[in-house]
Design brief:
Radius of gyration of chain A: 25 Å
Order of helices and strands of chain B: HHHEHEHHHHHHHHHHHHH
Number of strands of chain A: 14
Strand order of the largest sheet of chain B: 1-2
Largest sheet of chain B: 2 strands, antiparallel
Oligomer: heterotrimer
Chains: A alpha+beta (519), B mainly alpha (322), C mainly alpha (301)
CATH architecture of the largest domain in chain A: 3-Layer(aba) Sandwich
CATH topology of the largest domain in chain A: D-Maltodextrin-Binding Protein, domain 2
CATH class of the largest domain in chain B: Mainly Alpha
Largest sheet of chain A: 4 strands, mixed
Structural class of chain A: alpha+beta
Largest interface: B-C, 91 and 90 residues
Distance between the termini of chain A: 71 Å
Strand content of chain A: 5-15%
Number of helices of chain A: 21
Chain lengths: 519, 322, 301
Amino acid sequence: MMKRIATFLLALLMLVPMAHVLGGEKELVEISISMFDRGAIPGDQGTYEDNVVTRYINEHMNPLGVNVTWISAPRNDARAKYNAMISAGTNPDIFWEYSRFWMDQLRTQEVIMPLDDIIEKYSVQYKEYAKKHAAMLAPFVTLEDGKVYAFTSLRTLTELPVAGIWYRKDILDAQGIEVPTTFDEIVEAARKIKAADPTCTPISGSLHYFNTVMGIYGLGTEEVLVDGVLVPRHRTDRYAAGMNALRTLFQEGLVDPEYITDESMTRQNQLWASGKSAFSFSTWNIPTGTQELMETVPGADPYPLPNVASEFGTFFLTPQAPARIYTMFTTGMSEEKIQAGVKYIDWLLTDDNWYTVVHGLEGVQFNMVDGYREGIPGAPVWAGNEYSVVTDATYQPGEIAAADKTNYKVLSERYEANIKNMFAHPISNTLPYDYSSNAYSELTSNFSPVRSDIQTQIITNPTYTVEQGVQEMDDAWKSLGGEEVWAKKNEWFKANEQMYMDFRQAWIDWMVGMANAIP
Amino acid sequence: MKEGISVMQHNSVARIVPPDKRDRLWRDIKRAKYLYIMIAPIVVYLIVFKYLPMGGIVIAFKDFKLGRGILGSEWVGLKNFHELFRSPDFKLILRNSIMLNVYLVVFTFPIPVILALLLNELRAPRFKRVIQSILYLPHFLSWVVLSGILIAMLSPSSGVVNRIIMFLGGEPIYFMADKTWWVITFVASSVWKEAGWGTIIFLAAISGIDMEQYEAARIDGANRFQQVWHITLPAILPTVSIMLILRMGSMMDVGFEHVYTLQNSYVRSVSDVFSVYVFRIGIERLRFSYTSAIGLFQSVVNLIILLGTNFLAKKVSETSLF
Amino acid sequence: MSSLSKRRKIQQSTGERIFDVANVIFLSLFAFAALYPFLNTIANSLSSNRAILAGEVYLWPIEINIEAYNQIWMDPYLFKAMRNTVVLTVFGTIINMTATILAAYPLSRPQFPGKKVIMVMITITMFFGGGLIPTFVLMNTLGLMNKYSGLWILSLFSTYNMIVMRTFFQSLPAELEESAAIEGANDIVILVKIMLPLSMPVLATLTLFYAVGWWNSYMGPLLYISDPEKVTLMLKLRQLLWAAQTALQQINEEGLMNKPRVTEEAFKAAAVLVSTIPIILVYPFLQKYFVKGVMVGALKG
């Protein structure tokens, strides 16, 4: 016992949470990679550490001198678990994550290492890939100190979440309303519907409703570029217009008044699924309850709504970083392990190996039918998507509908038909990612709740106007040091303005290009 | 006595302690040898698993970086605490945490005691057992589940509660959107979930009461209320006191899930508490030092309140923690 | 009927009878309020998804189907997880109770030298601790990772529960101990032969508390158990319960082509029930220890 206590103290003293002991004279270099346990692998088919996918990977990596092991954690609590492991030095060598913000945190915590030299020295395929897509990817993997900290690849269209509005064509038809193309037309339509049927709640929404409307008014992020200066959103015309729209909808009873307290989206789902609402402001794909809607209400005809315009233009809603997964190397990895890690990534990008890792083996997991993958029922579960930390995929028009084997395939078809429209609009962002500094974080965390409260007041309180609210918001923002912090933000922006402008254009071109490639 | 004299002889320059007291101390220690054996593993456990890791408290005084470990991270003294006190939300969060807890203690502490007494008065034993077994059920459901049910029940348009209100001729109340009603709902929901569970400990205390006392009282002509007042209550008073003291030791803590699942932007000014703040600020942003400082602040205040309550309890009753 | 019992019967005044009726009504209402969430969950687990989403399900299942339960039975891992949790709970509780008794008894003896010091030591640990990271490092260094024994040792006893037990021991009359001591019994004998039999209610209560604690434990197994064979029920089911948010997040992260099987409402409800019913049944079993009246008189003899 005493010896063990002494060892513990020694471990603390040695301040080496990153210590990894090299495997002695083994032929194979072993590297460990993190993995999210999403519960998709049935118990009798293995674990996230050991299953068909991991075995397939090692079949191919072992001849290259590398053995890949995986350390999994349940998705929702993965961070807590990995943090603890880092402190004890038992963490995986390689981490990957979806959040750039999180990656930056890991950098300031001195958990991950810069990769510029590593890629330059050891990589072949990835180096090529990164060069080819530099315009889109470089800004995302380059952190504040100007160094690259992650391997990444581009998402495909189906991997870019979007907010969306679905509507009931049958209700519109019954009232003789044309499909709205502007937000004002949505408001008009809602008025007509409500007038015709007071028990109907024209618009249902919960968590995403607010952001969707803001997105329509061109407020995808915290800042708007006005005459070359980044202005906080609450000071812009767009914001005032958007808040007015939200206020109108609420005060006239056109939106479900309980959306604000609908924390779990129960009510929104209820209204939509029981047929009581005409528009559902939801997110990403077919809203929950649409299939149930079609079962409950005969004649219900839900369609996704093509992006509508506001007086400021038509925008792509909720832009997400095009980078799919950020794969990072932890500090303290030995040269051997670094090379092994790079080998794995390069292997994925060779001969489309990533395709097999993601989708499985043709003839075992899927067959190609009319050019689309069709899953073979009863095949061993192949949960490979995130094992392939980099991919080189493109969207295949029609693949979503082809994969939908439910009775309501028509919903997927309609959704897919709308994709072209969804992506063909410019993003409203100026910046690929937000400025980051301690002061800025502090400002944001202090200001957000205040702003949120005032927003609720503006929307719900008939005697409290938009102007009043914005003024109060601004006062609060100023008293929190907003002016000074944003001055710094603008300095930061100016220092790299051209890069951001170029990037923004590249982003728009990329998405619009993908959209136009769809027949 | 022989022992006393020899002690005096050996320790003539020792502190003047009456031989009786020293005698007694040594005798007590010798007599308690089995007690020491019993408690020894516990003490070892405490030292190894509680006190050894306590060194980690220094994280609150450092700029902890995961990559550097505890000792490798720089000292920053009270900087994290300054940040906490300086934060504009701090007063609000402190006030909310305390106020919600005060309401919770005032309303949810007595209820399990009262319920236990009422249950005790039930005459049919089977009915009593059935009710006991039902009351504690909500304790097992998470707030994720319960909040969904609650919000739906309180909906101004379709909720059961408002339907009853309207039936009785009133106007529907949007409970979750009103600052006052939200607090009431919050406290009531805590009763709903935990009151039944809380009765268990008091029922156990009641069942430890000697039946003979009730017999004697009945013979003396005491009615049921008098029996409760003179026998049951005093008998469970030590348990109640200890439970209250312990409860006061968590005045800074309001359960995260409870608030988080019921909160919304209407009521943030009355519902933002430390646990939610830490979630928003700390955990998501890997700010170990800052969250550690917040935790330490909460603990210190809790301890002070506990000691205060303990002191008062000592004055008022015989039961106290130490 | 003797005059004594007749007098007793008459003493049941009108006031008391009204009280009884009111008491029954009040407690019944309270019990119904407490029962409702469960009834609702049971109803959900047997209803169709459509009915649940449409908000039609309150007390009774609508469009009954047992699809949710079929899905649960089909998962081979679920039973293993449940078995693991049972093992974790049973042995954990026994260990906890033993440690609690070993701590509470000495601390309840008035002439135990040093008890104040130990009490202070223990109370401090209620408030201050190193936190997750140092504890994790310690467990790792001591080789207690990935073992249930590690979890049991780490949470050896709850100071809160221990204080409750100590309070109870303190309330037992001193004559019992004294008379036994006179007859030459040492502390161990006193504890086992006299104190514990009289403490059934509090022992039953704390057993229940500890058992529920182990059954619901999440952070411990999450951080310290990595062997999938040792996964506990709560770990498995928590993922499902937060499934709605997870599903959305997963689609956001993995894209539409990797749509997870969206956990449906009925399945979630069934999962809640399966994970809570076993532990709920413990209390009715322990209830016989809460029987009023103690054999103090018998022991006095």
